[in-house]
Specification:
alpha+beta; Glutaredoxin
């Protein structure tokens, strides 16, 4: 009997032309835990750790609305030395803070709960996270690992493979934290170009899923502005006003010179036709698409 062709959600999304703008999960705080073993399908929650420590970390992360991700370096597995953990925070001002530590015993992870209650050191180089969580979704591993290798060749100290970040169909996904910039639909070549442009102060719209400090329609509006007026730095555009009227949004965006000082974006939110959005999920679901209906300067 003929073998059924294997389904890959990222291939299907590319064929459909799924829009990426407005798909970045909202968040300001990230907890990274280096774990060199095989990642469970549900990430940190699936690890066999000391129960009390695990509950403490989960409770502190929930209180801080932090996302916990397991991470590891691309390439051959390292077998010696302690693992690292980090708490990364994006502030409302646009500044970001980082706090790093080491762990070799389960109890050491209790330091994370303490760190979540502190502000951490300001600045530091951003971290590049590449989702390669194949047990969660095969597309993340198939498309993510070549991207992680390519980026690690350029920025070995900043690149980590990580567990599920959302949006399997947009693999390969790269998240720059704590700046909170989500990119999707990348391959080895485009990831290097996209990331280097980011570090040069030029965020392009082509692979941008959104900024995690913004809500989905605001993310889509910023992407529309970048598409119309060209790339800009992460903080060059800010949301001045958002007004919803049913399925329609009116969003006013303030820009820094030399970018437009004020841009008005109108969006229509609609639901997509049902489709499979993950490799492992067999049920068809729909998702919200934000269509730009008007964009003008003041």
């Amino acid at each position: 009997m003929p073998t059924a062709e294997r389904f890959f959600c990222s291939d299907d999304a590319r064929t459909r032309g799924d829009p990426m703008a407005g798909t970045a999960p909202r968040g300001f705080v990230w907890v990274l835990i280096e774990y060199r073993g095989r990642w469970p399908i549900d990430g940190f929650e699936g690890l066999h750790l000391q129960a009390a420590t695990k509950r403490l970390v989960l409770s502190a992360a929930k209180a801080a609305r932090a996302r916990i991700l397991l991470v590891k370096r691309p390439g051959a597995r390292r077998h010696d030395g302690p693992d690292r953990w980090a708490v990364l925070r994006h502030e409302n001002s646009g500044a970001f803070r980082q706090q790093w530590g080491m762990w070799s015993r389960d109890e050491d992870l209790a330091q994370i709960a303490t760190a979540l209650g502190l502000s951490g050191a300001r600045g530091g180089p951003p971290v590049l996270l590449v989702c390669t969580h194949g047990r969660h979704d095969p597309c993340c591993a198939v498309r993510g690992r070549p991207v992680a290798r390519a980026l690690a060749e350029r920025r070995p100290e900043q690149v980590w493979e990580c567990t599920h970040v959302g949006g399997d169909r947009f693999a390969a996904n790269v998240v720059i934290v704590p700046d909170g910039v989500y990119y999707g639909g990348l391959d080895a070549e485009s990831s290097v170009a996209t990331v280097e442009e980011y570090f040069s102060g030029r965020v392009h719209p082509d692979h941008l899923r959104g900024y995690t400090d913004l809500f989905p329609p605001q993310q889509a509006a910023v992407t529309a502005v970048l598409r119309r007026f060209g790339p800009a730095g992460r903080g060059d555009y800010t949301i001045a006003e958002s007004v919803r009227d049913g399925d329609f949004w009116r969003i006013r965006i303030a820009g820094r010179s030399p970018h437009p000082e004020c841009v008005h974006v109108e969006l229509h939110a609609r639901r997509s036709p049902p489709c499979r959005t993950t490799c492992r999920g067999s049920e068809a679901t729909s998702f919200t698409v934000y269509e730009t209906t008007s964009i003008r300067t003041a």
